[in-house]
Amino acid sequence: QVQLVESGGGLVQAGGSLRLSCTVSGRTLRSYAMGWFRQAPGKEREFVAAITRSGDTTYYADSMEGRFTIARDNAGNTMYLQMNSLKSEDTAVYYCNAVFASDYRRPYFTSWGQGTQVTVSS
């Protein structure tokens, strides 16, 4: 049974930064491409960023390009999302999941973690 645990969220002013972490148990992180997703109130969950198994290639949603950086530590079974220049529209619950290597916007596991709340005040 895979378990995904997100952490690092919080309340930050617009223009500030946060670093999210995702730990994976029950599976070996290095076996999967991984991604971040987010869900704002009243909206559907959306793709944020993804990273290949080796970490050599990353993908971002257009609105995050240049502000967010995804990274992974396979030895530590942990993935990260560095978020800079945060905007009020980044307010959401952020989730991690494995993603399909053939479609990095598509989550792999059907179960999700609790997510971590990011609130950006303007």
Structural commentary:
- The protein has strands at 3-7, 10-13, 18-25, 33-39, 46-51, 58-60, 68-73, 78-83, 92-100, 103-107, 116-121.
- The model has no long low-confidence stretch (mean pLDDT 96).
- With 122 residues, it is mostly beta strands.
- It has no helices and eleven strands.
SS field, number of helical segments: 0
What's the oligomerization state? single chain
Q: Strand count, sense and closure of the main sheet?
A: 7 strands, mixed
- What would you call the structural class? mainly beta
Low-confidence stretches: none
Tell me the helix content.
under 10%
Mean pLDDT: 96
Task: Estimate the global geometry from the Cα principal axes.
Answer: globular
| End-to-end distance | 40 Å
Please count the beta strands (DSSP E, at least 2 residues each). 11
Rg on CA atoms, Å:
13 Å
Key structural traits:
single chain, 122 residues, 7-stranded mixed sheet, 11 strands, 53% strand
Give a short synopsis of this structure.
The protein is an all-beta fold and 122 residues long. The chain is built from no helices and eleven strands.
Write the layout of secondary structure elements.
Elements: E1 3-7, E2 10-13, E3 18-25, E4 33-39, E5 46-51, E6 58-60, E7 68-73, E8 78-83, E9 92-100, E10 103-107, E11 116-121
Parallel strand pairs: 2-11
Antiparallel strand pairs: 1-3, 3-8, 4-5, 4-9, 5-6, 7-8, 9-10, 9-11
